[in-house]
Amino acid sequence: MDGMIQRIVPYLTTTDPAPVRDFYVGVLGLDVAMEDPVLNLRSPGNPAAQIIVQRPGSPEPRFGIDVGTPDAVDASHAEAVARGLHVVYPLTDEAWGVRRFFVADPSGSVVNVLAHAVTMR
């Protein structure tokens, strides 16, 4: 694979993201980086330090792994398919600027494998 892991981001699931947002922003000082389609909270001093807050749905990734480049996403997807892993969300270019797919790891945890079309700062 030609990419390099940029970050690994945990995902929280809740039916009411407002109090979760208030906690992480008010108590821990995170910034809101995105509110739709998920709530993305990040450290003001280290934008790679993030938490994603999602609403219940299917599939629900447990965490995301940013593999660095869209080509690395394609390579990871090809390897997952070659290994017969369960791809639970297809390879997709999202409107908000990421290329991604979801795959179930051998433990059954769903992983969002992604890269931004534009490098994060």
How would you characterize this protein structure?
It is a single chain. The protein has helices at 17-27, 70-82, and strands at residues 7-13, 31-34, 39-42, 50-54, 63-66, 87-93, 98-104, 110-116. The model has no long low-confidence stretch (mean pLDDT 93). It is α+β, with helices and mostly antiparallel strands. The protein has one domain: 2,3-Dihydroxybiphenyl 1,2-Dioxygenase, domain 1 (Roll). Strands 2-3-4-1-5-8-7-6 form an 8-stranded mixed sheet, covered by helices on one side. The radius of gyration is 14 Å and the shape is globular.
Summary keywords:
alpha+beta; 2,3-Dihydroxybiphenyl 1,2-Dioxygenase, domain 1; VOC_core; single chain; 2 helices; Glyas_Bleomycin-R_OHBP_Dase; about 120 residues; about 35% strand; oxidoreductase
Q: Biggest sheet, open or closed, and with what strands and sense?
A: 8 strands, mixed
CATH architecture: Roll
Q: Please state the overall shape, judged from the principal axes of the Cα atoms.
A: globular
Order of strands, main sheet, comes to 2-3-4-1-5-8-7-6
Assembly status: single chain
Q: Spans with pLDDT under 50 lasting ≥5 residues?
A: none
How many alpha or pi helices? 2
CATH topology, what is it called?
2,3-Dihydroxybiphenyl 1,2-Dioxygenase, domain 1
Mean pLDDT, rounded to whole units?
93
Summarize the amount of helix as a percent range: 10-25%
N-to-C SSE string, H for helix and E for strand: EHEEEEHEEE
C-alpha Rg, in Å? 14 Å
Q: Which CATH first-tier class would you pick? A: Alpha Beta
First and last CA, distance = 23 Å
Number of structural units classed as domains: 1
Structural class: alpha+beta
